[in-house]
Amino acid sequence: MSAENSRDVSPTSSELKQNEGEPSSHVLAEQRRRVGRGSRLVGSGSAVPKHLITNEDLSKFVDTSDEWISVRTGIRNRRVLGEEESVTSLSVEASRKALEMANVKPEDVDLLLLCTSTPDDLFGSAPQVQKLLGCHNALAFDLTAACSGFVLGLVTATRFIRGGGYENVLVVGSDALSRYVDWTDRGTCILFGDASGALLLQAATDDQDSLLGFDLRSDGNGHKHLHVTVDSVAESSSSGAETNGAAFLQPGKASYECLQMNGKEVFKFAVRAVPQVVEGALQEAGITGNDVDWLLLHQANQRILDSVSDRLHIPSEKVISNLANYGLAARTRLQLDTRTWLNRDKQEFPGLKLWHQKTIKDGTFQLRTASV
């Protein structure tokens, strides 16, 4: 029996025949469990490499300065992988912290989603994270969607809980874009850092659902402005004898070019598209920007955060940011910030509603929006 079939709670024919053709109360309860369950956040963890690179460090080999970088991006430090570190090792460390916070055993995890664009293995790193954590009962696979990856993973996790009967889902966001950055290009190397974060989502009753609304969209037209593509050159056969005299071009060894980015175009896209999806998520949730206590965005650039909050008319003091210390660590920003948030005393957040304060005290929080 497959893992999916083992979770099948569809009524049997005998059960459907009970009570003159009506399904039993047990079957109805099981059906409601599948389509009416919510999700709540019960654990959060993060991990960063030991090696710290400051703006001053960068200025020693790139034509830049601390002032130039901090004024344009808000970033002062970033972390990059060392020799003994990897995407997998950071993912394991962050996940263990999330499981510890949630008081959930590794064997009780049903699904592990690794949201990454830089896996250690082209075939996927999630199964290795699963093995090292001891989550031997969990389905594990990678999910790739660049900067939007973690939000996509979060929404995917809630769908597995709501429609698939999963109880505990570990969502991990990890990236090591330092491997693909041109460290002589001050337009990109100043931005990116490596990190990992993990959230543990657990099934809950529908009235406890922490995901109030989401809006997800894609636009492939922006590929030319931000990409890391395969750089492979075919090689001619050195000897006709190797191919029985036939003309043949041997595929070159695959490698990736350095990250290419048109910063101005990416900035314009972000400040236009992000408010649109946030507003879409707020509309689905049935609330407005005035109801938002805290705004937590993908943290690529402080100027983007400021521009988005201005367009949404959300005061800057409600915008959570710590990219100054980590740089653009891709999809891990949400988890890193969330852990910092959850570890604070609720008295530091006077704008929270009473019911909202209770959920934070219990170790969970209400996710206002999930947006790309």
CATH architecture heading:
3-Layer(aba) Sandwich
Give a short account of the largest sheet: 5 strands, mixed
**Proportion of residues in extended strands:** 15-25%
Number of helices: 13
Which term fits the overall shape?
Answer: globular
Q: Look at the helices and sheets and give the structural class.
A: alpha/beta
Q: Let me know the average pLDDT.
A: 80
What's the CATH topology label? Peroxisomal Thiolase, Chain A, domain 1
H-E string? HHHEEHHEHEHEHEEEEEEEHHHHHE
InterPro entries: ACP_syn_III_C (IPR013747), ACP_syn_III_N (IPR013751), Thiolase-like (IPR016039)
Pathway: Lipid metabolism
Protein name: Beta-ketoacyl-[acyl-carrier-protein] synthase III N-terminal domain-containing protein
GO molecular function, one term: 3-oxoacyl-[acyl-carrier-protein] synthase activity
